Amino acid sequence: MITPPDVDLVPSTNDSLTETPARSRGLPSIVRALRRTTPGKAVAWAAVALLLLVSVFPFYWMVRTAFTPAAELIGDASQLTPSNPTWINFARVLGLTTTEESVAAGGTGATLNFVRYTANTLFFAGSIAIVQTLSCAMAAYSFARLRFRGNSALFGLFLSGLLIPGIFTLLPNFALIRSLGWLNTFQGLIAPAILVSPFAIFFLRQFFLSLPREVEEAAAIDGVGVFGRFFRMTLPMSRGPVATMMLITVVGIWKEFMWPLVAANSDGTRVLTVALQRFQAQSPNTSPDWTGLMAASTITVIPVFILLVLLGRQLVQSLNFSGGK
Amino acid sequence: MPLGTQDPTPTRRPIHHRERWAALALLVPAMVGFVVFWILPSFRSVWYSLTDFNLLNEPGFIGLDNYRELVNDDVARNSLLVTFQFVFFSVVLGTLLSLVTAAMMQRLRLKTWVRSLLLLPWLVPNVAIALIWAWLLDGQLGYLNHLLTAVGLPGVSFYNASQAMPIIIAIGIWSGLGYTALLFFAGMTQVPTEMYEAGSIDGATETRMFFSITLPLIRPVIALVVVMSAIGSFQVFDLVLIGYGGNPIPAVRTIFFYIYQTSFGFFRMGYGSAMALVLAVILGALTAIQMRAMRANRSDLS
Predict the structure, then answer these.
(1) Which residue ranges run through the membrane (chain B) (predicted)?
(2) Closest approach of chain B CAs to the CA of A202, in angstroms?
C-alpha cells in the first residue's frame, strides 16, 4: 500500500528553479516513452494534438482574417489562407491611411492609432511592473528581515488586501482620481497600482525568507547598513524571483481592462484593451469591420506572443514557482 | 510559515534600533499606496453604499435604502444567478479538463514549448479573446459555424438565449485551461516518479494511477485552484461586454456587468457600491476558505 507524502502547495524555490526530473533525463526518456507506447498513449497524444490545435487555431484565424481584404471576406470565408493577402488592415488601424482609403478598405473612417495605444500600454505595464515590484520588494524585505514592533500585524494587514475584490475599491478610486482632476491622465491610470500589490509583497517576502541570513549578518557586523544590505546584496541575489514577479505583473496589467476603461479612455492615454473595445463599439453592429478588428487584435496579441517565445520557459516555470496566483 | 518576527538573538540586539527606522523607510512607498488606494477606498465604498452618490452631487445619506432596493431588484438577482451559473460550470468543467490536461503533460512528458503554447490563450486579454470568438461564431461568415454546418450540425450563436451561457462558459474555460493545467502540473511534478514506476510494475493502468496516485496526492492544489478560479470567474465582465458589443443579452448579463452599468452607465455610484459590497462579502468568504486551505496545507508539511 502506498502512503501519500505531503504535497508542496507553494513549491520551494529550489524545486522550481531546477527542471522537472522528467525533462532532465533527456533523450532516453523519449526512447522509453516510444517503446512503452500503447493504444491508450496514442489516444492521449491525439488528444494533446487536438488540444494544441484548439488552443492555437483561433489565433491563426485572427491573423488570417487580418490579412484578408475586407471585400473578399465573403467569398473567402471558408478558405484556410486568403487569396490576396494585404497589409491594408494593419495600415488603417495603425493610422497610416487617409480616411478615404480606410473607408474604401471597409473601415468606418474613425481615427485609430494603435501605434500610440501600444506605446501607452507598454508604458502602463512597464512602469507598474518596475516601480510596483521595487516598492513591494522593499516592503517584503522589511517584513522578512527587520525587527520592529507591529511587523506581523502590518504584514497581516497587507495580506488582507488579497481579500478585497477589485470592484470594491474601483468605484471610490475612480471618484478620487476624478476629484483630483486626473481622469484621462497617465498619473491617474497608473496611480492605484503603481506602489503596491499585496500578492507581490507576499510572494517576495516568501522568497527573502528562504535566503540564508549568514552573509547579511556578517555584512551587518562589518557595519553595512540595512539599505546597503538590501540594495547591494539581497536585491542583486534575488534577480530571478524579482524578474518573475515583474513578468507576472506585466501580463496582469497587459490584460487589465476595467480600470483603464473608466479612468483613461481618451485618445492620449487609451491602452490596447480599451482601444479594441472602442473600435468594436464604433464598428456597425450589423456588419462589423472584422478585418480591421482582427488586425487590431493581432497587434494586441503580438507583444504577448513575443513574450511567450522569448520567456515561455521562464513563464511556465514561474507558474510552478508561484504555485498559485 | 509563521507570520511573526524572528526571535531577537543577542548578537543582533545592538542594531535593533537602527533597523526600526530603516524598516519604516523601506515600508513607506508600499504603505502610502496601500492606505490611499486600498484602505481608505474600502471605507469610502461602505459610506457610498449608504448614500445617493451619483458623481455630480455631494453624497447624501439615505440609510439602507440601496440595500432595500437591492433585495427587490430582479435584474440584480438575475445577474447574480447568471454569475453563479457561470462560476459553477466553468469551475467544475474547467477543473476536470485541466486535470486531464495536466495528467497528459506529466505522463506524456510534454516539452516546455508545448506547455507554453497551451498557455497562449491565458496571456491574451479577454477583450481580444471575446472578439476572436465573436468572429469565429459570426452568424454569416464565422469559420466555426462554417465547420459545424459542413459536417451537418446546426450553427451556434451568441444571441441564442439557450446557447449564450454555454458559449461564454466554453470560451472562459478555453482561455484559462493552459494556466490551471500548468498549476496542476506544478503540483504533479512533486509526486515522486517512483510511485508511477511501482504502479506500472504492479500492472496498474494509467487511468488507475491517475485516480489512485495523482488525484489524492495533489488534492491540496486542486482545492486551491478551485477556489481561485471561482473567485476569478465571479469577476467575469469583459467577455460578455465585448462578446455582445456592449449590450449583452439577459442570459449572460453578469453581476460585474450590472455593477459597471449601474455605476458608469447610470452614474448610480451609491447603488453600485452597495452591490459591490455584497459581492465583496461573497468573494471574501470564498477567499477566506482559500486562505484556510493554504494554511491547513502548510501545517501538513512540517
Answers:
(1) 21-40, 80-105, 117-137, 168-189, 209-232, 266-289
(2) 11
Question: Hey, which residues does B61 pair with through a beta bridge?
Answer: B51
Query: 3-class DSSP state for residue B111?
Result: coil
The grid coordinates listed for A93 are 488601424
Compare CB distances from A59 to B120, B207, B219 and report the shortest one's residue. Answer: B120
CA distance B170 to chain A (A): 12
Segments forming the whole domain that contains residue B28: 13-48
CATH number of the domain that residue B289 is part of = 1.10.3720.10
Q: Minimal Cα–Cα distance from A186 to chain B, Å?
A: 16
Task: Look up cell 477606498; give the residue.
Answer: B41
**Nearest neighbour of A312 by CB, restricted to B112, B135, B231:** B112
At which residue does the C-alpha cell 496542476 appear?
B184
Report if residue B239 sits inside a domain. Answer: yes
Integer angstrom CA distances of residue B192 from A273, B26, B196, B257? 43, 41, 8, 45
Q: Domain for residue B208, yes or no?
A: yes
The residues that bridge with B51 in the sheet, in sequence order, are B61
Domain count, chain B: 2
Measured distance CA(A176)–CA(B53) in Å, rounded: 13
| Range(s) of the domain holding residue A182 | 114-282
DSSP result, A105-139: TT-------HHHHHHHHHHHHHHHHHHHHHHHHHH
* Chain B positions in Cβ-Cβ contact with residue A14 (cut-off 8 Å): none
ipTM above 0.90, yes or no: no
pLDDT in tens, B232-241: 888 899 999 9
Contact residues for A163 (Cβ-Cβ < 8 A; gap 6+)? B283, B284, B287, B288, B291
Q: In this complex, do B44 and A142 lie within 8 Å of one another by their Cβ atoms? A: no
Q: CA-to-CA distance for B201 and B207, rounded, in angstroms?
A: 15
B22 shares a domain with B131: no
What is the CB neighbour count within 10 angstroms for residue B154? Answer: 10
Interface A:B, Cβ pairs < 8 A: 361
**Chain B residues inside the 8 Å CB shell of A307:** 123
Under 8 Å between Cβ of A226 and B60: no
Q: Are A44 and A36 within 8 A, CB to CB?
A: no
Give the separation between CA A110 and CA A121, rounded to whole angstroms.
21
- Per-residue pLDDT of A276-287, as tens digits, reads 999 998 888 778
* CATH at A242: 1.10.3720.10
Calculate the alpha carbon distances from A53 to A37, A45, A46, A82, B229 in Å.
22, 12, 11, 20, 24
Nearest CA distance, B68 vs chain A (angstrom):
19
Q: A191 — contact with chain B (CB < 8 Å)?
A: yes
User: Do B264 and B133 belong together in one domain?
Assistant: yes
Q: Which of A135, A255, A290 sits opposite B126 (nearest CB)?
A: A255
